[in-house]
Automatic annotation (TrEMBL):
Coiled coil: none annotated. SUPFAM superfamilies: P-loop containing nucleoside triphosphate hydrolases. InterPro entries: AAA_dom (IPR025669), DNA_Partitioning_ATPase (IPR050678), P-loop_NTPase (IPR027417). Signal peptide: none annotated. This is ParA family protein. It comes from Paenibacillus oleatilyticus. Gene3D superfamilies: P-loop containing nucleotide triphosphate hydrolases (3.40.50.300). Residues 2-182 form the AAA domain.
Length: 260
């Protein structure tokens, strides 16, 4: 059965998509991976497929959620890397969920988990990217997860968001999915020349201790350019993803510490 790994933080621009895309790409070198885009921006879809998100109109995660069946909406990127894409319409997920005419009668936080149910045995890992908000799309992504990675970009606003994000994870654990674990906090987008970045990195460690991954991801031009160049036939791919290899090792240790 696939391990579901969700990347989240309600602060925008904190490398959720970049990190989930790189992790999906790197894991797919050796494992069967399904990426799931739960954000109406469709950035993970664009990053991994290098296509316009509207090419996937009506063939996205929103349609999958409405029938709680992922299979017809899986797009193949490579043999080992598949995606359920998103476009703007997933923004209507909450209104669909609360529409009195909606025939869905299950737990409103478990729609994604139910949707992925039948395909879990087809993959080793399912990587879920979330929007910069704590709405229903994120709650469903947290509830569907075996493990959650909290993204901490070294800024004061992201630091302010982190506490509430972790509280939300605990709430989802208590109310919806007792099996879900918080894998840890990934400190990222560090500008090594900035002392305030360094101070925030240290503050996160002081406050959250071992919950922080040891690996810290810096800002690099090659990583930033992935959205333009993609993963295939990208001459700087090795340097773009190099620093994520260490993180994946740590992540795998924490993921595999989690029982099926
Ligand atoms: N390690 C990095 N080095 C350089 N640039 C990066 C790095 N990680 C992310 N970026 C860039 O920072 C910007 C924000 O990253 P990304 O879109 O992954 O964040 P996000 O948390 O998914 O944003 P949103 O909240 O809007 O979904 C993007 O332009 C991305 O290319
Ligand atoms: Mg994003």
């Amino acid at each position: 059965m696939a391990k579901v790994i969700t990347f989240g933080i309600q602060k925008g621009g904190s490398s959720k998509t970049t990190t989930s895309g790189i992790v999906a790409y790197l894991l797919s070198q050796k494992h069967r991976v399904l990426a799931v885009d739960m954000d109406s921006q469709g950035n993970l879809t664009e990053l991994l497929t290098q296509q316009d998100i509207y090419n996937f109109h009506k063939r996205t995660v929103f349609e999958a959620l409405q029938i709680q069946d992922a299979r017809p909406f899986i797009h193949k990127i490579t043999d080992n890397l598949h995606i359920i894409p998103a476009e703007d319409h997933i923004a209507r997920f909450a209104s669909w969920l609360y529409d009195s005419k909606n025939p869905y009668r299950g737990n409103k936080s478990l729609v994604l988990m139910e949707t992925l149910g039948d395909v879990q045995s087809d993959y080793d890992y399912i990587i879920v990217d979330t929007p910069p908000a704590l709405g229903e799309q994120t709650i469903n992504a947290l509830a569907a997860a075996n493990v959650v990675v909290a993204m901490f970009e070294a800024s004061k606003f992201c630091y302010s968001a982190l506490g509430r994000f972790l509280e939300t994870c605990v709430h989802v654990q208590e109310k919806v999915n007792r099996e879900m674990k918080i894998a840890g906090i990934l400190r990222c987008m560090i500008d090594v020349r900035r002392t305030d970045n360094k101070a925030l990195i240290e503050l996160a460690e002081e406050v959250y201790g071992e919950l922080c991954f040891d690996t810290v991801i810096t800002r690099t031009a090659a990583t930033g350019r992935l959205s333009i160049n993609g993963f295939e036939n990208n001459p700087e791919i090795k340097s773009a993803v190099a620093q994520y290899l260490e993180f994946i090792e740590e992540l795998m240790d924490r993921v595999n510490g989690v029982e099926d």
